Amino acid sequence: MPIQLVLFGAVLLALSGLPALFSRRRSSWGQVVSTVIVLAGSSTGIVGIALHFFSRYLSAPLFFPWPAVGNSVVGLDSLSAFFLFPVFVMSGAGSLYGTAYWPQKEKGGSARRLQMFWGLMAAGMVVLLLGKHAMAFLLGWEVMALSGFFLITADDTREETRKAGLIYFIATHISTLILFALFTVWRLATGSFSFLPVSPGSISLGLINALFLLAFIGFGIKAGLMPLHFWLPGAHANAPSHVSAMLSGVMLKMGVFGFLRVLTLMPVMPAMWGWMTLAFGAVSGLLGVIFAIGQHDLKRLLAYHSVENIGIIYMGIGLAMLGRAFGHPEWTALGLAGALLHVWNHGFFKSLLFFGAGSVQHASGTRQIDRLGGLGRAMPWTAAFFLIGSIAICGLPPLNGFISELLIYAGFFHSLTAGTSGGTAAAFTAPVLAMIGALATACFVKVCGTVFLGLPRGESAARAHESPARMLLPMGFLVLLCLVIGVAPYSVVPILEQTVAAWAFPSGLPSPAGFLPLRTFGWISLAVAVVSVFITGLAVFLGRKSPRRGTWDCGYAKPEASMQYTASSFGSSILYLFHHLVPSRLQKSDLSQVFPAPAAMRSHIDDPVLDQWIRGFFRRLRSLSTWFRRFQQGMMQYYILYIVVALFVLLCTLIPFRELLESLFHHS
Amino acid sequence: MKNVLIHLLLFLFLSPLLPGIINKTKAFFAGRKGAPFFQPYFDILKLFRKGLVVSTAASWIFMAGPIVTLVAVATAGLLIPLGPFDSPLSFTGDVILFVYLFGLARFFTTAAALDTGSSFEGMGAAREVTFAVLSEPALFFALLVLARVSGSFRLSDILHGPIGGVNVHTVAPFVLVSIGLYIVMLAEASRVPVDDPTTHLELTMIHEAMVLDHSGPLLGMVQYSSSLKLFILGALLLHLVVPFRAPQEWLNWLLFVAEIFAVAVSIGVVESIMARLKMKKVPYLLTGALILCASGFILLVR
To answer: Alpha-carbon distance A445 to A320, whole Å?
Structure first.
């Protein structure tokens, strides 16, 4: 029953774009009908998932005949159901948000296209998650990846968007290509394209390591792990905001899912794999947040935070893998539970933040943080929601980010006290996680402070207005999810328990909730939240008549909004700490003489992977290949000559060389 | 029950005495008479009776800053064990909550600072979050050392661990970690050589610069929470540097009070004999603390 519901939901999603597509260019009813269908599909899917987790319905795999590749199979297990939940939540919430953010009445054709591919992308992800066979999986994967391209380039009148779309397109196809290789090797090793556990001893060491590496890189590109993240910031920044939310909150997680799916089928788990995952996770987490601090573009900044959070997820997975390698079920249970819960949490709070960024852009027309300011006054709801999302992403209590990081920390503490050298080495990553937390706090204080607090820094920020209810409602729903997981973490424990059990562990896995009194954490978080909100409310009420004066500025005669501390200045002291890792480019003109001419300064942080490595490589390749240009003259005669030469060379291969040589040089 | 009550009374009512002791020590070194020990109490009480002036730029976050900070720090005070006694709230994993409550307090203090739109407060907030980037992992390394020795994930056990755990192997790590934690305490409590609460220039301060615009009851809350924070960090440090216990309960409480006063005196001495570091040099000091704590960890698990 659950799987039929989920599939029915997917069909609704896939077809949801049709009313919009067939409606008139600038009419809004098509979009409305489409959104209603998306919401219906999402609700159906969520009911199916709930039935799977809470009713003990057994989902038999469904067979679909697909003779070319053998029978293809889709089936619903806990791992896929777990990842399905954010897909359904976000496709519904984002679609509703889109009706106000990207209305067909104003945007016309691009809104029709967006509605079409929105549903297709969600449906593709459902197929991918349900697939128990490489072909079904790849089918869903490609539908998702291609729809993603059309969603990112919805605003294709801007060159920046087209460029970001192209980079995304190339990256996602490299990823698909590596997945082709992965499944070819899979077929070679196991004899079938089905996702069935590999029996131990049936596969050689070289092959299994090749499988792991291919999965790590192929899925790592999609997930946006640090050196493979190069497509991510541009795509997230330039897509429409609800698409960014979907990409960051949900689509990246498909990479994580694929990686986990392959790992669950592996018969062995060498410690090296765990170390690699943990190390890449830690690097990704740390560098992701440092790069985020240097950004001036609100959505680009959020995109780098996705790199950071994917890093945290990979740290949890790495710990889980080490637990399996060293035979410590408690590391695996805690690490995996933390990573999985963070998949949900990140899906919720990051989507919330992208929705918030979209509202800001909608209201003020800019994404440049340093041009904004004081928006909290004009858009109080957006500001409050964004603030809650910020606290959540920093991993602070009383919100959900804290709970998932707590589980991962607990895993590290268990690895520390196990007394083995491997466990101790793993625990070295715990302070890295603490540093990531401190950096994230710095970054989001900067964002909230500069965008929503203080005074407007520019004309556009001063004219800002609150977003319509159709944009606020999805945000409110996501805030609710963040709050519930934060103050009642035990409510997700049954779901986590079932999902963690998907990990094949010889001795079975303990419940992650058994190690921590999550109820106590929930109550304390709730108490802190309620008391804080209550006293603040009281203070605001009592202080409403208190005298208002200008901010103390050391007696300066003419204070102006542009004199406020900017986000760039706020981040610069941290960037200075890490200036070896993250060099920032600074252009400034000299100030000389008594009355200097007007001057400007701009700073920019290049992405080392895209701007230095990849672009640098292709620049060098181009300069090396200039030699070949002399053959490209553009005259038909030359090309005919080349054909003749090529034919001649080919004909030469028919000459029996040995006999020729013998007849030429042999005295007979 | 009795011990919980004493814990609460000491935590809530003794902590403002610590800045008083620090100031008296500094006055002694300067050859002055100094303000009375109870001056901080008088200050806080007076501030709570005063009215409030709010900046025209400020929103509700400005109010939430001191309040959330006070709530978070007070909750952290329920988690920290004093002397040999367990804390009133003690459960597995409370150590993470303890550290992250300080993070929550920092988030709201700095956000409230930015809410006024003042450059000085922005500068103070930027410094606060920058230095936390180094002091937070240092604190974590210190807690890892203690967790490893005690084999527990509960703050009370972690901090009580050193008593039984002190032996040849753990002395050197404990010494390193204690120095590191002392520096972290100075930084987190905004004392010299990281921050100087008494300078006359907004430009050179961290914590005081952030709260420039707070007045009346809100400023009272800020001052009260900073003394609570000092108390908590001092109590944390004491578990490492004074690992002996008396047989009687009352004597232990007395000892604890004497020890926490000694911590305040030592801070006063440091402030008297040292100048504040240049802002650019502070990260070096904190990196030093981080390295000390990390080497303590490496030395322990080698």
So the answer is: 32
Contact yes or no for B93 and A445 at CB 8 A: no
CB spacing of B64 vs A532 below 8 angstroms: yes
Do B218 and A520 lie within an 8 Å CB cutoff?
no
**Res A558 pLDDT > 90:** no
Per the CB < 8 Å rule, is B147 touching A554? no
CA dist., res. A499 & res. A503, Å (int): 8
Q: Does one domain contain both A640 and A533?
A: no
Which residue of A434, A442, A450 is in closest CB contact with B129? Answer: A442
Which pLDDT band, with edges at 50, 70 and 90, does B166 fall under?
Answer: low
Instruction: Determine, for residues A565 and B139 on separate chains, whether the beta-carbon distance falls below 8 Å.
Output: no
Are the Cβ atoms of B103 and A450 closer than 8 angstroms?
A: no
What's residue A71's pLDDT?
67
Nearest chain A CA: its distance from B183 CA (Å): 17
Q: Nearest C-alpha of chain B: how many angstroms from A347?
A: 22
Whether the per-residue pLDDT at B84 is higher than 90: the answer is no
Range(s) of the domain holding residue A657: 634-668
Q: How far does the CA of residue B301 sit from the closest CA of chain A (Å)?
A: 7
Residue A200 falls inside a structural domain: no
Number of structural domains found in chain A = 2
Q: Is A569 on the interface with B (CB under 8 A)?
A: yes
Residue A479 lies in a domain: yes
ipTM of the complex: 0.96
Q: What does the pLDDT read at residue A460?
A: 81
Measure the CA–CA gap between B290 and B286, rounded to whole angstroms: 6
Q: Which of A538, A569, A597 is the last residue of a domain?
A: A538
pTM: 0.94
Question: Are A520 and A647 part of one and the same domain?
Answer: no
Rounded distance between C-alpha atoms, residue B55 and residue B63, angstroms: 11
State what percent of residues in chain A have pLDDT above 70.
Answer: 98
CB pairs under 8 A between A and B: 230
Residue with token string 């401190």: A438
pLDDT of residue A668: 57
Q: Rounded mean pLDDT of B126-152?
A: 92
Test A536 with B64 for CB contact under 8 angstroms. Answer: yes
Which of B64, B91, B107 has the CB atom closest to A394's CB atom? B107
Nearest CA in chain B to A453: B115
Cβ contact A111:A531 at 8 Å = no
A602 DSSP β-pair partners? A587
Residues of B in contact with A395 (CB under 8 A): 100, 103
Beta-carbon contacts of B193 under 8 Å, excluding residues fewer than 6 positions away, are B186, B270, B274, B275, B276, B277, B282, B285
Nearest CA in chain B to A373: B117
Which of A287, A382, A387, A551 is the best substitution to test chain B (most B C-beta atoms within 10 A)?
A551
**Residue closest to A565 by CA, chosen among A441, A460, A446:** A446
Q: d(Cα B130, Cα A203) in Å, to the nearest integer?
A: 50
Last residue of a domain, one of A538, A567, A586: A538
Residue A91 lies in a domain: no
- For β-strands A584-588 and A72-74, DSSP reports them as unpaired
Given a contact cutoff of 8 angstroms between Cβ atoms, the answer to whether B157 and B86 are in contact is no
Residues A296 and A445 in one domain: yes
Distance CA A320, CA A411 (A): 8
Closest CA in chain A for residue B132: A438
**Is A249 part of a structural domain of the chain?**
no
Kindly determine whether residue B129 and residue A417, on different chains, have CB atoms separated by under 8 Å.
no
For residues B274, B275, B281, B284, the Cα torsion angle rounded to the nearest 10 degrees is 20
A406 touches chain B (CB under 8 A): yes
Give pLDDT, residue A194: 85
Q: Are B260 and B231 in contact (CB under 8 A)?
A: yes
Dihedral of alpha carbons A25, A27, A31, A33, sign: negative
